[in-house]
Design a protein that fits this description.
By secondary structure, this protein is of the alpha/beta class. Helices cover about 45% and strands about 15% of the residues. Helix 1 crosses helix 7.
Length: about 240
């Protein structure tokens, strides 16, 4: 049984991952800056007491330090971390405010630094574990009018590689998922059909499809995967853009 920490756990990929781990009998610590009582009530009805929620702004060191202390009390530590918290922005770079840049970098990248800073020492002490970072196809290719998001997710992608190198000797595997557009609240519903039409599979990615890969990367089934950045794109990332 794994004990898993998932950031950005109240919706989208984070919530789908929470349900996947709970379905597999694991203990999950849900972390989010907003509490959703409806979601928690639904989880409790199905999964009883196999999860905990800790309200945390993972872009703040003091919050993550407090989170770490609470996790040690509730679960005696975790052996899997899913760094999923993230936000998005759509602007030309020269029209982007400093606040937008800082908020996005802090949420998407600094949060991984902070969970690593406070939780990796426990993984080392306890003999290892797994870390899965949630990047994006936008971390391996570029988008129109999304330079800050591209920069942040590009950082996540390469940070994953660096972490994988540094912590392999401690039996800590670090991998990353890079999904294309996913049906979450970050995606404008008006654009779903557009994204589906340009995809080779002609449909949008569902959160549970990303959660399944995250679970695989946490399990012994992926025991020799380390530093991988796995596209979950329906084949979109292999297309040159040449018209059909």
């Amino acid at each position: 049984m794994n004990k898993v920490l998932i950031t950005g756990a109240m919706s989208g990929i984070g919530l789908a991952s929470t349900k996947k781990f709970l379905d597999e009998g694991d203990i999950v610590v849900l972390v989010d800056k907003e509490k959703n009582n409806k979601v928690l009530d639904e989880l409790k009805e199905k999964y009883k007491d196999n999860f905990f929620f800790i309200k945390t702004n993972v872009s703040r060191a003091s919050d993550v330090e407090h989170l770490h202390k609470e996790v040690l009390v509730l679960t005696d530590g975790v052996n899997c971390i899913v760094n999923n918290a993230g936000i998005i922005a759509h602007d030309f770079l020269h029209e982007t405010s400093e606040k937008t840049w800082d908020d996005l970098m802090n949420t998407d990248v600094k949060s991984i630094f902070l969970t690593s800073k406070y939780f990796i020492p426990d993984l080392i002490k306890n003999g290892g574990g797994t870390i899965i970072n949630v990047s994006s196809i936008s971390g391996i290719a570029a988008d129109y009018k999304m330079p800050v998001y591209n920069a942040a997710k590009g950082a996540v992608t390469n940070l994953t590689r660096a972490m994988a190198l540094d912590y392999a000797e401690f039996n800590i595997r670090v991998n990353c998922v890079c999904p294309a557009a996913v049906r979450t609240n970050m995606l404008n519903p008006d654009n779903i059909e557009k994204y589906a039409n340009i995809n080779p599979l002609k449909r949008i990615c569902e959160p549970k499809e990303v959660a399944n890969v995250i679970y695989f990367l946490s399990s012994d089934e992926s025991s020799y995967c380390n530093g991988a950045n796995i596209p979950i794109t329906g084949g979109l990332d292999i297309w040159t853009g040449q018209p059909k």
